[in-house]
Amino acid sequence: MTAAAEGSPPLRMTRARRNALLQSEPVQGFALISPTFLYALILLVLPILVVIAHSFWTQHYLTIDRTFTLENYRVALTEPIYRDLLWRSLYISLTVSLLTVILAYPIAYFISFHGGRHKSLWLFLITIPFWTSYLLRVMSWKVILGYNGVLNSGLMGLGIIDEPSTALLYNSSAVIITLTHAWAAFAILPIFVSLEKVDRTLVEAATDLGDGPLRSFLRVTLPLSAPGVISAALIVMIPTVGDYVTPKLVGGKDGVMIANAIQAQFGKAANWPLGAALSVTTMLIVTLMAGATVLIIRALQRLAR
Amino acid sequence: MRTRRFLSGGWLSVYAFLYIVFLYLPVIFLPIFSINTAPTPKFPLTGFTLQWYADLPHTPALLDAAWNSLKVGVCASVLATVLGILAARSITRYRYPGRRTINGLIMAPLVLPEVIVAISMLLVMLQLGLSLSLFTVVLGHVLVCIPYSMTVLTSGFEGFDRSLEEASADLGESAFGTFRRVTLPMVAPAIISSLLVCFTISLDEFIIAFFLTGTEATLPIYIWGQLRFASKLPGVLALGTLLLVASFLLMTVAEILRRRAARRTQNEGGLYA
Questions:
Q1: Has residue A28 been placed in a domain?
Q2: Taking the CB of the first residue and of the last residue of chain A, which one, N or C, has fewer CB atoms within 10 A?
Q3: ipTM of predicted assembly, 2 dp
Q4: Which residue of A has its CA nearest to B136?
């Protein structure tokens, strides 16, 4: 036997093993997803890390001082304007998600349990308004709620009020109404999906075993649809905290939210580190709220059993 | 007895009706006030006119914005769909560690405050010395479109019968040939649906474009600029109505195609399995 022949079997083995490795599920799967994954890393993860880094720096005119400091966070959390804006954003977002979920549940229930053959038609009907430009939907609420708006002129036409009310627009209620409308479909869809998964025989079983419809709803249907309620609450809550357009258009002075302040820091005020600290604080608050929501709903779900 | 009727009965359909009214309320006013002669939107209506629509083609800034939106929309939807196909295929076809984490990361723009996504991208682009342009807008739009594209495409790819691909390979097709002649035709409706959905999203997207654009406005940015002037409102409403109709048509086609894709992969997969 020659040396070459002795050497070749292991060499062939490794090549075969390498081929097997290259054709294995994990490697192929990972290779396939890596362009998209890299895109998200470079344009989402990296930028967020850069923002986090900035939040610990300071800015002197146009130069960034890279000495570590927590000063920006002190300002973000203790300066009255930022503290108030953070609280208001939190309050508005919680109210909006609660309202949206409460309003969305019955309609999702109706479509899932009484939609019959027309389920997908109903769902489509619900999503249509959301394909209008977001700006124009917010604008429409301004038209509805404004001093010369539809609601005021309508109420005056009916003789219910004598002069237009200014209380409808430019405050946090206007922001809440607009956002509740804007996010409705995003709450209905996840709740509907989880209601569809509820095993109908369980509901029947509960009824057969003597539970009334209300009891079987509370003890079977509602807890089983909790995952949908959780995702609906989160899907509404997380983006609304950082909404920019609605507060700007219908919020007025009393309806401004944190995103408007963040934008100001990156724009006119030109204080990137403070803007970054406000962004990071907002993201942290969002994360805490999301965690709390999940825990609360899980606890309620356990109570119901 | 009363609770039974309460849960199963009529009030739910009444509620559903009212809810739909609430959802359509602000949308309905766009077309109504866009054909009204008075420049301020209020009741009672003063008369019928198509003047606001007729003025639109004579507004150069609007035409530029429309052209920019078209370019951005086409680029963003194609890029997002290509990246979406790769990811959706990987997620539905292969099992590997970290799959869920990566998927979560790709879907993250869906649940992050958009302002923060926009500002962090802006920060990086400025530091890299990239000048803001329609190109940076496209980069941002692709990021926010990918999750939607993924949703449409995974529903198209799921239940896809792998034995068809295996059969094709056994019969001597190359990997690419199999993809082109077996896989692609099966998922084509989902791909077109994804393109339409992404295009619609890009067409309506404001925040990212607002932060990442240089001097060239897209349609939402043009609209944002017009909203400051009360006298421009009817024109904006007319434009908005046209955009609504366009979005509605695109989404209807996208939805029909998505359903066809889902049905095709499931049914035919079942037949040949």
A1: no
A2: N
A3: 0.83
A4: A43
